[in-house]
């Protein structure tokens, strides 16, 4: 298919970039997606990157600008390694300048785009972006700038874990994510907790266990008085423990499970529903009952009773159904 499309590249590119200006949002999003797929077979990618960057700079319509940012993100994912270094630097400067944008959707789309770019920056460029922006001191800065930085840092851990979690940066990255997760502003805290989920997955893919700081903060988030905080913590535990990954050891699971079991009795319907989803994945129940049994052996009587009751009520039924494929990255427009 790819080779067959080559003769039509210029035509397709023109059609898709024009569609980014369409009044229909669904058309614009499809066009952004299509450009991300098309760029992979492109030899000369620079003109498209430049055109998108110019469009982002000059667009007065925020809805169109945001879809252009998404298109730029997807073409970066597909061809970030092929783009000219000077153009890449221009892109990163423009995106850094938009991290504090007063429109939420623009701030989020530019943060996601910058995160994607982090996989392709030179070591020197990455160090500058991290130390001068994403890991920089937050005291006295506008909350929107902090929110944009926090989003970009969290998503970068998801899309470029080998770089963000290298020994050179790991401690600073984890500290900043944990600090963001405990921010007073809910949007900053939510983005930090997403980052915690991305870190959790990174540790699980490496077969390692969770740093105590990370698991302890997850438990605190599950016990938070805000439903928004509880909900995103549950979603990230659900997502980071999807079936293909090895399970955590029972001693690490136990305190997280106890907090999730408490949330199965929460007054908020969504919090209750997602705690069930998170427990099914945490205990790998779609793969059998091995983890469930080994954790049951070390639970106190009250928690065990709660777990058995939840199994009867909903967990066994959920485990018999296919897992949801919900999009967890909220910087991607849908």
From TrEMBL:
Molecular-function GO term, any one: kinase activity
Biological process terms in GO annotation: cellular response to amino acid starvation; regulation of translation
Membrane spanning residue stretches: none
Keyword check for Kinase: yes
Alphabetized InterPro entries for the sequence: ARM-like, ARM-type_fold
GO cellular component terms attached to this protein's record: cytosol
Keywords: Kinase, Repeat, Transferase
Pfam entry (one): HEAT_GCN1_C_2
Domain of life per record: Eukaryota
PANTHER family: STALLED RIBOSOME SENSOR GCN1, TRANSLATIONAL ACTIVATOR GCN1-RELATED
The protein, known as: GCN1 kinase
Native species: Podargus strigoides (Tawny frogmouth)
Classification lineage: Eukaryota, Metazoa, Chordata, Craniata, Vertebrata
Gene: Gcn1_1
